[in-house]
Amino acid sequence: MEEQGKGFFKVYDYQELEKQELMSLYIGKNADYYLRKWSKTSAPEKAFSWNWAAFFVFAFWVGYRQMYVYLALLVGIMLAGDVAYIFVLGWEPDIRITIVISLLMGAFGNALYYRHIRRKLDQLKESGLESEEIRRRAAAEGGPNWRGILATCLMLFLYNIILGYLTSLLNGVIHT
């Protein structure tokens, strides 16, 4: 938050205060963690900022934080990489793609989450709702959600079914 002056004469940027309040409402649990990380840079949507949860369990972290478009994109990248391994290189899928994604998510997951929240809050603000309704919706629609974990499990289950089918095709082609 930007402030100017000293003591009693401090002048606060109230738009920044409102933005932080809405972000805090939207984030819910662990809002202080994310706001602290993002306050360390002038461009949090691009900044390197390590997140251990995003590193170790990136797909589940993305689902838990309700970033479903990113979840689909990540699983799609994993599947496309595995398809390239199978049909272009003739290899069995391995963990290299997952390791790269894991490292990138650990390094830039907070920036991705910042972008997600800003987009959601901008949509709420542009909806023409009163500010109290925007606050209520930010708190209700945001935050961590266990349904996201279930969505992640479903997507990874489908990913494994598709990958198993593709691997069996590769094995059938090689052994005939």
Automatic annotation (TrEMBL):
<feature type="transmembrane region" description="Helical">
    <location>
        <begin position="145"/>
        <end position="166"/>
    </location>
</feature>
<keyword id="KW-0472">Membrane</keyword>
<dbReference type="InterPro" id="IPR024399">
    <property type="entry name" value="DUF2628"/>
</dbReference>
<keyword id="KW-1133">Transmembrane helix</keyword>
<dbReference type="Pfam" id="PF10947">
    <property type="entry name" value="DUF2628"/>
</dbReference>
<keyword id="KW-0812">Transmembrane</keyword>
<feature type="transmembrane region" description="Helical">
    <location>
        <begin position="97"/>
        <end position="114"/>
    </location>
</feature>
<feature type="transmembrane region" description="Helical">
    <location>
        <begin position="71"/>
        <end position="91"/>
    </location>
</feature>
<protein>
    <recommendedName>
        <fullName>DUF2628 domain-containing protein</fullName>
    </recommendedName>
</protein>
<feature type="transmembrane region" description="Helical">
    <location>
        <begin position="47"/>
        <end position="64"/>
    </location>
</feature>
